[in-house]
Amino acid sequence: LLALSRARGLALTSKPLLRRHLSTTTSPRFSSLLRISPEVADAIATNKPVVALESTIYTHGALGSDLQLESIVRAHGAVPAVCGILAGVPTVGLTPPEVDRMVRDGASKASRRDLAVLAAGGLLATEGGAAARHGGTTISGTMVLARLAGIRVFGTGGLGGVHRGGEVSMDVSADLTELGRTRVAVVSSGCKGFLDIARTLEYLETQGALVATFADGVPEGSPMDFPAFWARESGVRSPATVRDEREAAAMILAQERLGVESGLLFANPIPEEHAIPRVEMENAIETAVREAAEKGFTGNANTPYILKRIRELTNERSVAANKALVQTNVARAAKIAVELAKMLE
Ligand code: PSU
Ligand code: MN
C-alpha cells in the first residue's frame, strides 16, 4: 500500500515539472502518465546534457547491477536518466534503489508493444487495484520514454537485430523499427554476433535509421566495419563513419533541423584490449543459438536466454567484455550529450 501511494504521489507531483519542461522543449508528444525525476526534469528544462539508460540491461541482461553507468555519465558532466516502468508507472530517472527493487521483485521485458499493457496496470493500481508490475525497458521501450521526455541521447550495450533465420521466423527486434520512427540517438557496440548482422543493416536502411560507426584513429575516409559487440569486426561495412563526439552531435542536430523523425545509431567498437575475436565466440554462439531453438526460447525470451548461456559457456569472459563496452558506450553518449548541449546554447 505504501509503495502504491508513493507511486501515485510521485505521479502527481511530477506534473508541474512536466509542464515547465513542455514549454521549453520541442518534444511534439507528451504523456501525462510519465514520471520524470526532479533532477532529470530540471536538466531537460535548463538544457543540461542528459543521457538515457535502459533498464532491461539490469532486469534481463545477465550482467549484474553494479555497472556504474550513472557515475560514468556524471563524471562526464551529464545527468543520467534510467528509464523503465516501476509498478506500472513509466519513469524517466529511476534511482538505483528503484532499479534494485525492479530486479528483486522481477520485471517483465518491455519493448514498445508492452508499454501500455504495463501502464494500464499502473492506472488501475492508483484506483486501488492490484499492485502493478515492473517493466525493464529494452532499447525500443527506452527510446519511446526518452523521446517523450525530450532526451536526445541514449547509451547502451548492444542493439537487438535480425535473428539468424529471421527471414523465416520473422524475429526482428523492435529496436530496429523503433530506430525507424523515434528520433533518439543510440550509442551501442553494434549488435551481437549471434544476430544476422548483414540483414540487420539492410533492415535499418529500409527503416531510414542513420547508422554511423566511430572511426577513432582510422585515416579519414577509410571504410569501417559495423562492429559485432564483443568483436570490432563483423565483415559488414558500416554505411557511414563518425570522427568524434562533436560530429555525432552535429548529425543529431542536422536530423532534428531537417525534421527527419527517424533515429540515429552510433556504433562504438569495443576497445581493442577488451575485444574477443569472433572465432573464439563462435562456438559459444553456435551452441547457445542451437539450444535456444531446441528448448523453444523464441520471441522475447530468445535474447535473454542466449546472453545467459554465452555467459556460462565463456566462463564469464563475455561478461567482462560486455561490461567494458557498455561503460565506454555510456561515456561516449555523455560526451555527445555535452557537445550537443553546447551547440544548442
Ligand atoms: N544486448 C545486450 N544486452 C541486453 C540486450 C541486448 O547486450 O540486455 C537487450 C536490450 O534491451 C535490447 C533487447 O533492446 O535485449 C533486444 O531484445 P529482442 O532481441 O527480444 O528485441
Ligand atoms: Mn525478437
From TrEMBL:
Highest taxon, organism lineage: Eukaryota
Q: What is the recorded name of this protein? A: Carbohydrate kinase PfkB domain-containing protein
Q: What is the lineage of its organism?
A: Eukaryota, Fungi, Dikarya, Ascomycota, Pezizomycotina
